[in-house]
Design a protein that fits this description.
The protein is of the alpha/beta class. It has 12 helices and 10 strands. It has 2 domains: about 230 residues, Alpha/Beta hydrolase fold, catalytic domain (Rossmann fold), CATH 3.40.50; about 130 residues, no CATH class. Strands 1-2-3-5-4-6-7-8-9-10 form a 10-stranded mixed beta sheet, sandwiched between helices. The longest helix is centred in the middle third of the chain and has 26 residues. It is globular.
Length: about 375
């Protein structure tokens, strides 16, 4: 096992959140470790969310420690893997976070408390880690997580794309084009998001803005967020096509409903048979709801990428079916957007989790103002 390490010692001041920052590479996955001046042998393993392929990595963010201030200020070290893959990397995120946890202990010594924390896809990694490696943790704190079965979450994006093309043909790429590996096209660079979103919005308004609003409502979206969601879906589906080596979805027998004219959608919708086994990309660390450590799940009431049904309800039902309700508490905020939390809200949720672990007193779910 080769580990290449760059160790940066940072002088502490009122503007520095970590005394020590270590950046390195662990078996192909770069990572960042931040340790506060008042470190008390406590550790946060942090998992980041979905990154567009080619986007700057988390370890390249000069403000990483500032983003982890909620945890560093409470005396916790933070260790975060970039994962060896960008884009959809749930399985890699779980495995490489666990490898980094072991590296941290080997390098800095045994810790007395460890929590798993993550946002978005990283929230899904958090839940999968608690489900599969819970013995190594005191609890988990997933924010706005990909908490449904990953296949179902991405299938939602597939169905949204298919039904949008049925009602607004020619505005975005067809599913056939996205999953045509003979002519692969890379995901659209993040830098082009603004112009692409503007073009999508203009095309919808020119065709039928009322229908556009109804379509957005069908997928729990505000109309203004529809272009962003479609842009994001395009990149995710192209990423999935490459990693699964084909199309893992099949809508040959799907009946689409909830639109102003369901018959029209089902008549026009593009139907594709699956050409790849979905387990290739979604099978490892599929969601189970089998948790045995305290989990405080935090979500916003509105999320344009992972609506509460996919971010909370589906997982809550899995936990209940497994008789694990005593290990789950759901907190929510009135935030309007994906992972829109204030630092003090995150801190309150984290403190509730810590108090639960320390005292055994099950906190109440509900709103965090």
């Amino acid at each position: 096992m080769k580990i290449y390490v760059i160790l940066l010692l940072m002088l502490c001041s009122a503007f520095v959140y970590a005394q020590k920052i270590e950046k390195g590479n662990l078996n192909g996955a770069t990572f960042t470790i931040a340790i506060p001046e008042n470190w008390k042998g406590k550790l946060i393993m942090y998992a980041h969310g979905y990154e567009f392929v080619g986007a700057p990595k988390q370890s390249e963010n000069p403000r990483f420690a500032e983003g982890m201030k909620v945890f560093l200020d409470r005396g916790f070290a933070v260790a975060a893997s970039d994962y060896s893959l960008q884009g959809f990397a749930l399985a890699q995120g779980v495995d490489e976070t666990e490898a980094l946890r072991q590296y941290f202990i080997k390098t800095y010594g045994k810790v007395d408390t460890t929590y798993m924390v993550g946002h978005s896809m990283g929230g899904g990694i958090t839940l999968a880690t608690i489900e599969n490696f819970g013995k190594n943790y005191n609890g988990g704190l997933p924010f706005c997580p990909l908490s449904s079965r990953p296949y179902l979450q991405v299938r939602k994006e597939f169905d949204m794309y298919a039904s949008f093309n049925a009602l607004f043909p020619g505005v975005v790429a067809s599913l056939s084009e996205i999953f045509d590996l003979s002519k692969p096209k890379p995901p659209v660079p993040f830098s082009e998001m603004g112009p692409k979103m503007a073009a999508i919005r203009k095309a919808i308004v020119q065709k039928d803005s009322v229908l556009g609003v109804a379509f957005a409502n069908r997928f729990d979206l505000k109309f203004d967020d529809l272009p962003l969601s479609l842009f994001f879906n395009n990149n995710v589906l192209r990423d999935i096509a490459q990693k699964a080596k084909g199309n893992p979805f099949d809508n040959m027998n799907t009946v689409y409903s909830g639109f102003p004219d369901d018959a029209l959608v089902n008549k026009r919708v593009e139907r594709l048979a699956a050409t790849a086994d979905p387990n290739i990309i979604f099978g490892k660390y599929d969601r189970t709801g089998k948790i045995d450590k305290p989990v405080v799940l935090m979500h916003t009431l509105y999320d344009q990428l992972i609506p509460p049904t996919y971010g909370v309800t589906n997982f809550e039902n899995m936990v209940h079916l497994n008789g694990k309700d005593k290990y789950l508490v759901v907190k929510y905020t009135t935030g309007q957007g994906h992972c829109v939390f204030r630092p003090e809200q995150m801190g309150e949720a984290f403190d509730d989790l810590r108090d639960w672990v320390k005292t055994g007193h099950h906190p109440k779910g509900g709103i965090i103002e």
